[in-house]
Backbone:
């Protein structure tokens, strides 16, 4: 019987459902507003805010991951967990920074986003010949770096893969011509890192290519499942390292053995800079399943590995990033290497190697790890990270992306992972012995890190406050001034996720200065040039880089925040050729085009 009580209950049920529906709708509607309000509060406190705007700018790219031999299916999410990357350059020389992003499924297309100069981008990869590069049988893309290897003024592109590496010559920004065979590149390398550098200072860009898996492996057609690292701490059964010396005629000579760079560790990131003060670039390798390596340049003729002597290669971890920054504004470049931190399970912690003193009689700089003391140690399952002054206060900040495999939200593979990690090498080395993942997460859905440098030796994590709130599985991050307005925007490549562009809005009254360098005697890209800016009793050193972070390359124009300062006293430039240049009192709040004096 339909009583008054039942009618009353039904009425209240309807009211409750309608109310809950309204609350959900209002929450959805107000979420962006709440996020913008929080970010605005972050700007007031920290001097900048970030707003994700990729789709609005016409960038709707979503990364696709690779699928290897079916024998790896139980652990496919792990072994196929890399490939998302981003590299920034002005490929058509129109004054606006463009960027290239990689895809990693067989048959998938890479993207080259041309900057339209109005806040939007257009994908021109197919039109210029850089899209269809993941064809079956050739491997798939892991990353790319820009560099003018033929010194014609146009930025060429090197693409590294689990597969056939490719070199594309830039034909005036109109098209790219594949020159891989003529250049003398190997048939197959399973690489996760590459950089352009001029290691001998001859004015021509050389190339470092760092293998991860051994080069004899075709991950799509395995003869055996004994392909995994022999140890979680001291594995040396990974891919070889290649150094291609530029002959100046469009061809390269492989010189790694002659130079003494013969590592077979599982390298995930590489970066080069003059860390020893010799005038030549040294090489830092961040290695998975083991210790880092630091190769000191001996006048462009040989390298000496000094990881243990310097301190950076004593403790085995899971290195995934290599970037340099003058965090104390004292002319010393520190090294930031990321690792794994999962509270309650595994806390390797990230490393911030700060130069201390030069070892007596060796010329090797000793480093101390100050990551924990400065608050830069815990970043989750950390991947790419870059230094940059995001709030233009005159001190370098750090942006870091993280997250390994985001699958079942309330599941975890960590227990099984920890069991295989302590196994014997014969167990670890065979993929058949690794427990199946079965749709479980491994350090997934992690919040990113954005550490603001207060200029006094302390970093404060502010990502949520300033608007960086995504929880995708981040891999590569690059910093670039996309609008030519003196602020660094953040570009993030996510594994099996959408590409993100965080537009940066810096508070008024914060000044800046930037430099776009062009070599004449030195390599045209000016990679390796060292610039020191002096202002208000402070100084900051940066070097032009041919690739840094994890599978990433920043805007090569050097950007310096100045805070409230209205005057730069002096700029000192040391070109890769060894020539020096001084610029007194350059104008602030502008980009300076500087050509190497002949």
Residues:
């Amino acid at each position: 019987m339909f009583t008054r009580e039942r009618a009353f209950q039904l009425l209240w049920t309807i009211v409750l459902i309608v109310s809950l529906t309204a609350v959900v709708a209002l929450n959805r509607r107000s979420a962006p507003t709440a996020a913008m309000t929080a970010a605005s509060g972050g700007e007031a406190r920290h001097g900048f805010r970030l707003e994700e705007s990729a789709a609005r700018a016409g960038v709707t790219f979503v990364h696709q991951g690779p699928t290897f031999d079916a024998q790896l299916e139980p652990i496919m999410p792990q072994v196929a967990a890399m490939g998302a990357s981003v590299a920034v350059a002005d490929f058509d020389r129109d004054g606006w920074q463009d960027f290239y992003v990689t895809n990693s499924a067989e048959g998938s297309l890479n993207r080259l986003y041309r900057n339209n100069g109005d806040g939007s981008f257009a994908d021109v990869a197919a039109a210029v010949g850089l899209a269809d590069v993941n064809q079956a049988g050739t491997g798939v893309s892991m990353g790319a770096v820009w560099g003018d290897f033929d010194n014609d003024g146009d930025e060429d592109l090197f693409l590294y893969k689990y597969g056939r590496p490719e070199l594309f010559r830039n034909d005036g920004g109109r098209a790219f011509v594949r020159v891989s065979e003529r250049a003398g590149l190997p048939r197959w390398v399973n690489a996760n890192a590459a950089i352009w550098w001029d290691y001998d200072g001859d004015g021509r860009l050389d190339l470092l290519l760092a293998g991860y898996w051994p080069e004899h492996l075709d991950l799509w057609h395995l003869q055996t499942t004994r392909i995994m690292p022999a140890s979680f701490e001291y594995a040396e059964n990974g891919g070889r390292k290649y150094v291609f010396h530029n002959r100046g005629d469009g061809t390269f000579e492989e010189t790694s053995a002659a130079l003494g760079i013969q590592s077979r560790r599982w390298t995930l990131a590489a970066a080069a800079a003059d860390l020893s003060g010799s005038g030549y670039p040294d090489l830092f390798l961040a290695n998975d399943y083991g210790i880092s390596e630091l190769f000191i340049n001996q006048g462009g003729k040989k390298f000496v590995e000094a990881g243990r002597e310097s301190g950076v290669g004593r403790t085995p971890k899971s290195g995934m990033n290599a970037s340099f920054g003058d965090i104390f504004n004292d002319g010393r470049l520190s090294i930031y290497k990321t690792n794994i931190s999962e509270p309650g399970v595994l806390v390797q912690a990230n490393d911030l190697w700060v130069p201390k003193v030069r070892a007596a009689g060796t010329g090797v700089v000793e480093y101390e790890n100050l990551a924990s003391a400065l608050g830069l140690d815990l970043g989750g399952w950390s991947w790419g990270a870059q230094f940059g002054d995001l709030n233009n206060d005159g001190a370098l900040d750090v942006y870091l992306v993280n997250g390994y495999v985001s699958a079942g939200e309330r599941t975890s593979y960590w227990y099984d992972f920890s069991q295989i990690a302590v196994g014997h090498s014969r167990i670890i080395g065979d993929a058949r012995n690794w427990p199946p993942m079965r749709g479980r997460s491994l350090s997934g859905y992690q919040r990113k890190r954005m550490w603001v440098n207060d200029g006094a030796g302390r970093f404060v994590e502010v990502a949520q406050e300033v608007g960086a709130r995504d929880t995708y599985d981040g891999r590569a991050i690059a910093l670039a001034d996309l609008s030519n307005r003196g602020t660094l925007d953040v570009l993030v490549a996510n594994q099996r996720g959408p590409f993100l562009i965080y537009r940066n809005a810096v508070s008024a009254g914060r000044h800046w200065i930037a430099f776009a360098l062009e070599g004449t005697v030195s390599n045209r890209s000016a990679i390796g040039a060292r610039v020191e800016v002096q202002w208000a009793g402070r100084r900051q050193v940066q070097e032009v880089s041919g690739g840094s972070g994890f599978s990433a390359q920043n805007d090569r124009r050097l950007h310096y925040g100045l805070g409230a300062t209205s005057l730069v006293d002096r700029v000192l430039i040391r070109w890769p050729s060894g020539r020096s240049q001084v610029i007194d009192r350059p104008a602030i709040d502008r980009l300076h085009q500087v050509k190497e004096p002949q």
Q: What stands out?
A: The first strand starts at residue 48 and ends at 52. The first helix runs from residue 4 to 46. The mean pLDDT is 93.
